[in-house]
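Minutes, structural biology subgroup

Action item carried over from last meeting: produce the structure token record for Bifunctional ligase/repressor BirA (Microbulbifer taiwanensis). EB confirmed the sequence was re-checked against the source entry. Recorded below for completeness.
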Amino acid sequence: MHISKPKSPLEQLRPVLNLLADGEVHSGESLGAALGVSRAAVWKQLQKLTHYGLVLESVKGRGYRLPGGLNLLSSDAVEAGLDAAARDLLRQLIVCDEVDSTNAQLLTRLERDDGHGVAMLAERQTAGRGRRGRSWISPFSAGINLSIGWQFSGGVQLLEGLSLAVGVALARALEEFGVPDVRLKWPNDVWCRGRKLAGVLLELSGDLTDRCGVVVGIGLNVGLRGDSAAAIDQPWIDLHSVRPGIDRNRLAAAMLNRLLPLLRSYTEPGPERGFSAYRDAWLALDQFAGRPVRLQSASREWCGTAAGVDSSGALILDMDGERKLFHGGEVSLREDGE
Ligand code: ATP
Ligand code: BTN
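Output recorded by EB:
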């Protein structure tokens, strides 16, 4: 006997979303006919769209439309954009409408020894995570929420500087699409025009001294609607406001094309192992180079001038000629005066 899982509220709306994705006006009657339901049932479904932050426009006497349409994720479209190297390294691509957190899902897969080479993209996260228990706001179809699972031997020290190298890979993928003014903020942000465009979250599993796994999670804003972004408590930016029209599937593929080989070369012996291969590129993209900054931990604060990063990815802070190194973890960098 086959028992099918009940559809989530969002999955139930998928057929109507697929119809409205073109951004054109659809009458209630035509939607009802295409979906095989009454006009009243169509109306009920349309009302639910606002719950996901989608703005439905009612066009008098003609019907409804989603202004600007939706550029929905599709596994076929992402796969079509992968190059040969990424195809070789990708064991499974999962594209889903809604999860708690793609990082949480992949950590579970790694713990079951089934997460290596798996990439997951979600249209929406209900509990997207940032560092240290903070949240990542990820409304439906507004960004790219991507996690990749990777298993390797040799202990967690091999990953030194990885969040910075991932930033370099993301900046290069964005440059492919002509996104201007991309910069990196130590240790895990991609900025554009002085605001946060994307964040990277690495999470670990397994025996940290030997065979372990890492989940590389990336959240990137593509078209964040203002009301759903109201909870973001720092200046943010999305791709629509700097370079509109970028296809999310093509961009996700470009990210995988860079990130999968990066993960392999980082964790396997060879000339590109570790952060040193990425340091110069990171320094060239440093948002805060030579600027006055503050570093905050839970209990202390240091002020000085940001002086780049060393070959392990540690931040160099120049405090009146005395240099101090900071290793990711528990410190946050802020522009001095903020
Ligand atoms: P850090 O401590 O590394 O300096 P941070 O303040 O950016 O950095 P993170 O944990 O890296 O903190 O990221 C989570 C933070 O990012 C949230 O607390 C919020 O301020 C912000 N944020 C959440 N969602 C988004 C989003 N979609 N776009 C931009 N910023 C976001
Ligand atoms: C940060 O800036 O602190 C990192 C944000 C990382 C967000 C991404 S979205 C995909 C993946 N899943 C999560 O729950 N978080 C990461």
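Discussion: DSSP finds nine helices and 14 strands in the chain.
Next step: EB to file the record with the rest of the batch.
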